[in-house]
Amino acid sequence: MRDPKAVSADDLPVLPGGASRRAVIATGVLAGAVLAWSLRIQAGDPWFYPATFILAAIYMVGSSVAVRMVGSRFRWHASRRGIRDAVVGGVLLALLFFAGAFLVRYVPFLRDPVDELLDYARVGSLALVLLITAVNGVAEEMFYRAALWRILKPGYRIVVTTVLYTAVTALAGVPLLAFAAAAMGVMVAVLRERTQSLTPPIIAHLIWSLSMLLVLPWVV
């Protein structure tokens, strides 16, 4: 059931034109290339920080351009109910993965890739990694749940955005992270559909990703 206070003007009945579609596709391809580059950077390498900020900038700028091409804008307004659902959803998803992580620690082929990924937080500046995680979380939602969301037909938005987000996340080579992306992708897409706002998906995304970064090292 949709949020009764949701703003419906965001989801136009007519899909955006070719220019906006091309802008979204170009953003996705360019972001994928930068992501592939960033994944080759070893933990502790100073290039890791600019690479991840460049990735976020591509998502944000490309999404903003694509949205403005159709004379629209991002919808940030959300009701209290939408905010509450986002907080509850983010916390519950984080708790679910904390529980799963206790089992992962006993499975080397699942544990080792996660441990390597967490090296970026261990070796570098935790404060900077937290900032990068937050900025990229917002940027990803702007692209997947706003720009890409707009060029898809209503009946396909949840499935397509979740599948593409999971596929891109899988490039990191961390099975647990890919599974997490699928679960979170469904949750934030449902929030986006119910509230027709970008704020609840961002809140849920940040609660999950920041809690994973801070707590997962202690669990794994």
Helical residue percent?
over 70%
Major sheet details: none
The oligomeric status of these chains comes to: single chain
- Integer tally of domains: 1
End-to-end distance: 37 Å
The number of helical runs is 8
Which structural class should the secondary elements be placed in? mainly alpha
Order of helices and strands: HHHHHHHH
Strand content: under 5%
**Radius of gyration (Å):** 17 Å
**Judging from the principal axes of the Cα atoms, what is the shape?**
globular
Find the count of extended strands (DSSP E, 2+ residues).
0
Instruction: Give the mean pLDDT.
Output: 84
Task: Enumerate the spans where pLDDT stays under 50 for 5 or more consecutive residues.
Answer: 4-15
Domain CAAX prenyl protease 2/Lysostaphin resistance protein A-like: 125-210
Pfam family, one: Rce1-like
Transmembrane segments: 23-41, 47-67, 87-108, 120-139, 159-190, 202-219
Keywords: Membrane, Transmembrane, Transmembrane helix
Give a quick set of tags describing it:
mainly alpha, 220 residues, globular
Short description:
The chain is mostly helical and about 220 residues long.
Task: Describe the model.
- The chain has 220 residues and is an all-alpha fold.
- The protein has one domain.
- The chain is built from 8 helices and no strands.
- It is globular and about 50 Å long.
- The protein starts with 17 loop residues before the first helix and ends with a helix.
- About 5% of the residues have low confidence.
